[in-house]
Design goal:
Elements (H helix, E strand, L loop, with lengths): L7 E9 L5 E6 L7 H11 L5 E2 L5 E2 L1 E9 L3
């Protein structure tokens, strides 16, 4: 990825349950260079604050995460 100068923003769909745990992750577009699995692993390990319904109760749902790749 470094040799290919891979940079940019990757859009990823993430399904977060009522507890804020990631249940599913889907890349909208493959990146390649071994980065796909790294992005998926990173987001699967993340913890989120779940969305709330009108009554203030946590609910599961899909959200889009913008994952930024930058060359240091």
């Amino acid at each position: 990825a470094l040799d290919a100068n891979l940079q940019g923003v990757i859009n990823v769909d993430v399904f977060v349950d009522e507890s804020g745990n990631v249940q599913e992750v889907e890349l909208k577009k493959k990146v390649g260079y071994g980065m796909d699995s790294r992005i998926l692993e990173t987001l699967k390990a993340a913890k989120f604050i779940p969305r709330k319904n009108r009554l203030g109760r946590a609910e599961a749902g899909w959200t889009e995460v913008k994952f930024s790749l930058e060359i240091p």
